[in-house]
Design a protein that fits this description.
Keywords: ATP-binding, Nucleotide-binding, Transport. Strand 6 (about 150), helix 6 (about 160-175) and strand 7 (about 180-185) form a beta-alpha-beta unit. The protein starts with a strand and ends in an 18-residue tail after the last helix. The chain contains eleven helices and 13 strands. The chain has about 300 residues and is an alpha/beta fold. The strands form three sheets. It has a six-stranded mixed β-sheet, with helices on both faces. The protein has a four-stranded antiparallel β-sheet with strand order 11-12-10-13, covered by helices on one side. Bound molecules: adenosine-5'-triphosphate. Adenosine-5'-triphosphate binds next to strand 2 and helix 1.
């Protein structure tokens, strides 16, 4: 179990992590979500004792990381998959780690098998693809057979097969009763993997809930309306207290009014309708909406334009 209380990190004027309090529990995958620069890596580095908090504390099974007797047997982490000596083979790299951490040599072959690198184990890591490097980083995290595993953006740059493999691995590690904490800036990656979500923005906690609760609370329903007179329809919607945006294909997406109310408005005002259908916003949209005000760098997006009436 990982527990943070009032965890804070400031770099000069900048507060990277702001009073975070949370618990990461065993037996489930906890997704740590936030836009770029939200403070995920900084939080993970503090959990692992690589950065010192400015305020608050974080413990692993009740102890700060630096006080753990056998860190690699208790916590395994993948922070930066490229942090490997390129001249070494995968086998040699893991063997060095095992020897310096007092772990049995047989674990090296076990984890190489587990991550599917047994056949290339004697080749230099320098020639490894991104996916192979990622697998080697995961092998290192698993070497001490730890109860707690942390992965920082583990699927970045991986192909669909690699992504599926990591997803299934995380789920099976959690099913064995381990604590699995994984960061991502994409909701779509967490949607099918995580049981619990911690969502942060600008270093602050925005949501701490199950995936189902997140869906129930944030996936707003919208109604798609196609009409030959979208400007008039948008005026009627706005006048009735609703919100209308165009979807880039000429249709209106209306929120905050029921489908029945929109149909009645059109009928009462003689606006011809070609489509009236209910849409469920995706979880990715809900996440973007929730963190919108905390994103550091915005890019202009075509479409999704607000209709002024
Ligand atoms: N060593 C540092 N010195 C100064 N500022 C830092 C340092 N490390 C991180 N920051 C700042 O702290 C904030 C949080 O960064 P962090 O890397 O933890 O975010 P993140 O959520 O992991 O983002 P990403 O998804 O882009 O990796 C950012 O604004 C970043 O610029």
């Amino acid at each position: 179990m990982i527990e943070a209380v009032g965890l804070t990190k400031r770099y000069g004027e900048r507060t990277a992590v702001d009073q975070l309090s949370f618990t990461v529990r065993p037996g489930q995958v906890t997704g740590f979500l936030g836009p770029n620069g939200a403070g995920k890596s900084t939080t993970m580095r503090m959990i692992l004792g690589l950065d010192t908090p400015t305020g608050g504390r974080v413990t692993i099974d009740g102890k700060p990381f630096r006080q753990l007797d056998n860190p690699m047997r208790e916590v395994g982490a993948l922070l930066d998959a490229k942090a490997i000596h390129g001249g070494r083979s995968a086998h040699h790299h893991l063997l060095c780690l095992a020897q310096t951490n007092n772990l049995p040599k047989r674990r090296v072959d076990e984890v190489l098998d587990l991550v599917g690198l047994a056949e290339v184990a004697r080749k230099r890591a320098k020639g490894f693809s991104l996916g192979m490097g990622q697998r080697l980083g995961i092998a290192a995290a698993l070497l001490g057979d730890p109860k707690i595993l942390m992965f920082d953006e583990p699927v970045n740059g991986l192909d669909p097969e690699g992504i599926l493999w990591i997803r299934n691995l995380m789920k099976s590690l959690a099913a064995e009763g381990r604590t699995v904490f994984v960061s991502s800036h994409l909701m779509s990656e967490m949607e099918n993997t995580a049981d619990h979500l911690l969502v942060i923005g600008r270093g602050r906690m925005i949501a701490d809930c199950t995936v189902q609760e997140f869906i129930d609370q944030n996936s707003e329903l919208a109604v798609r309306v196609r009409t030959p007179d979208p400007t008039r329809m948008a005026e009627l919607v706005t006048g009735a207290g609703g919100r209308a945006v165009t979807d880039g294909e000429g249709a209106l997406l209306v929120s905050e009014l029921t489908m029945d109310r929109i149909g009645d408005l059109a009928f009462d005002n003689g606006v011809r309708l070609h489509e009236l259908s209910l849409l469920q916003a995706s979880l990715e949209q809900a996440f973007m909406e929730l963190t919108r005000d905390t994103v550091e760098y915005h890019a202009a997006v075509p479409g999704g334009r607000e209709v002024s009436s």
